[in-house]
Amino acid sequence: xxxxxxxxxxxxxxxxxxxxxxxxxxxxxxxxxxxxxxxxxxxxxxxxxxxxxxxxxxxxxxxxxxxxxxxxxxxxxxxxxxxxxxxxxxxxxxxxxxxxxxxxxxxxxxxxxxxxxxxxxxxxxxxxxxxxxxxxxxxxxxxxxxxxxxxxxxxxxxxxxxxxxxxxxxxxxxxxxxxxxxxxxxxxxxxxxxxxxxxxxxxxxxxxxxxxxxxxxxxxxxxxxxxxxxxxxxxxxxxxxxxxxxxxxxxxxxxxxxxxxxxxxxxxxxxxxxxxxxxxxxxxxxxxxxxxxxxxxxxxxxxxxxxxxxxxxxxxxxxxxxxxxxxxxxxxxxxxxxxxxxxxxxxxxxxxxxxxxxxxxxxxxxx
Length: 367
What we know:
Shape: globular
Strand content: 15-25%
Number of helices: 17
Number of domains: 2
Helix content: 40-55%
Distance between the termini: 63 Å
CATH topology of the largest domain: D-Maltodextrin-Binding Protein, domain 2
CATH superfamily of the largest domain: Periplasmic binding protein-like II
Largest sheet: 5 strands, mixed
Order of helices and strands: HEHHEHEHEEEHEHEHEEHHHHHHHHH
CATH architecture of the largest domain: 3-Layer(aba) Sandwich
Radius of gyration: 22 Å
């Protein structure tokens, strides 16, 4: 063999080995913001679930302004987040995929306790406070009201307030109702300021629909299906641990400084979310959300929700309902003992502390 052929062969071999190494990388970058509902990610890291899957995990701190774009551009590989936050961008070509359901129950529509509003139909023509146009509370409220013959673009006057000031807007009579998420919903309800009118955690069909799912960068996913499956399993196992240990998860999230919060209120907020992971229900949740978002005018008229959902969700080897069912997690002594909190004790909390708790799904997404 000639010297040039030997050199060429060596170069090709090196390139192939380099490519194989890249494709089989065990490194995974997980995006996070610092939200109450990200407890499943924190649990997966702290309990060593990524390591058990053979992964070297790196947490990448993100912010709301660039969250979607950062995932699509590959600044991080995978995270858990809101289906309704990503569906419209996916329709428009964002290359990300949902992989499994993490939890249900984030969102609420709540009427002022001083009003006579007790049914969704009575929201027509009312003023509703939201943390931002395009936020999950806004999308959920718009979807839900469409089922009751209310056109959110014409029949509702939307008023934007910082999430931590929605209760103040109720107090001042600036709005008739609010659309919010945990822990804001629980705090307002416990303080006696509001009553639930539409509750994603309790009302059909929403109570069986995942608000938050594992979502990954499409290009990374196609190159690293085994790592993606392993990372998804780690997060779903983390979700199962949170389900068994909400109080322990709340303490861990605060003590390990993943978020600026209070363990007591954080635990109450976590207890309102249903951390029971699933794959089949996650897939159907994407279809339901796509269908209702289109009916509410949030997707293009030409979009077929079933096709969008099929493009948005991906099944991975080893990530199944059967695997979830068989997976066991440790139950921490006292880990499920979530304390109750009275209106008086809630009122005693400082405004700044409560504002810091405006965590899961509450921050404006379009700032």
